[in-house]
Amino acid sequence: MTNPSLSQPLLQLEGINKSFGGVHALKNVSLSVQQGTIHGLIGPNGAGKTTLFNVMTGMYQADSGCFNFDGESLSLKTSPQVLAVKGLARTFQNIRLFSEMTALENIMVGQHSQTKTGIFGAVLRTPAARREERLIRQEGYRLLEYVGLSKDVADRVARTLSYGDQRRLEIARALALKPRLLALDEPAAGMNPTETAQLQDLIRRLHADGMTIVLIEHDVGLMMRLCQRISVLDFGEKIADGTPEEIRRDERVIKAYLGGDDMPNSGKGAMPIAGTAQGSLQDDHAGTTP
Ligand SMILES: Nc1ncnc2c1ncn2[C@@H]1O[C@H](COP(=O)(O)OP(=O)(O)OP(=O)(O)O)[C@@H](O)[C@H]1O
């Protein structure tokens, strides 16, 4: 397993600002994601987590700030497609599979963005194109197995899969892009406890295999167990950054979650998390590394 303290930042955001009309959704937010770590983003509803995700994956263009990926300074206008080629893939809060395609086809579509033989090879069915197609199919099966989906799921139309299986398929499709950083937006949302436990195992396996992961999740207990570092947003500002242990004890975080008197979101906006907010922040397993 990678020792986070020895690793280099793979992704660095500095002084990011993003407004939607009068809503200042991100206020001078900086984020440094070390290679080989699981980095969590938490915060009450509307804190700016998804906006930050959208900025880091090229879906939104920040108004100002700096963006560095794998040692390369990038324009804030870099598109999601270019970022995907550079090694940054994501899943979405709301599942976005090709619902009428089979599970295998969903994964193969992701890989086709990386084929060498191109459209003419595919149309003319050249030997090189046929060989490439075979390898893509093999890799598709491998990824299905990797995320814990059985072979008989391969030919099923995506919309007929259970919710948990669709979530896993989305991760497999993102992995087909061969990313260096995988951004997972609320992967456990809507999952039952068994599916959540399986997802936790999958994320740990990805981490053990060297993947850098940025994770948004409302289940704070899960975040405390999985992440090596956690950044906390509240009203568009980063209010804390540290290990799960440090986050759990951070006064501003506790107030943001429990709605302390001197906090702007006093008494409202607490996250819908498993158990009480305090209970989750004090999760017994907090800080356990995979
Ligand atoms: N496309 C948009 N247009 C206008 N306002 C937006 C847009 N996206 C986000 N916002 C606003 O920006 C703020 C931050 O929203 P964001 O979705 O990033 O928060 P979040 O922390 O992900 O919340 P949640 O946990 O509820 O998903 C909110 O006030 C939200 O209404």
TrEMBL record:
- ABC transporter domain: from which residue to which, for each copy? 11-260
One family name in Pfam for this protein: ABC_tran
Gene Ontology molecular-function annotations: ATP binding; ATP hydrolysis activity; L-isoleucine transmembrane transporter activity; L-phenylalanine transmembrane transporter activity; L-valine transmembrane transporter activity
The record's Gene3D superfamilies line, in alphabetical order, gives: P-loop containing nucleotide triphosphate hydrolases (3.40.50.300)
Gene Ontology CC annotations of this record: plasma membrane
Q: Where is this region: Disordered?
A: 265-290
Task: For this UniProt record, give its keywords in alphabetical order, as a comma-separated list.
Answer: ATP-binding, Nucleotide-binding, Transport
An example GO biological process term is: L-alanine transport
> Coiled-coil annotation: which residues?
none
Question: Which PANTHER family does the record match to this protein?
Answer: AMINO ACID ABC TRANSPORTER ATP-BINDING PROTEIN, CONSERVED COMPONENT OF ABC TRANSPORTER FOR NATURAL AMINO ACIDS-RELATED
What name appears for this protein in its UniProt entry? ABC transporter ATP-binding protein
Q: Which organism is it from?
A: Aquirhabdus parva
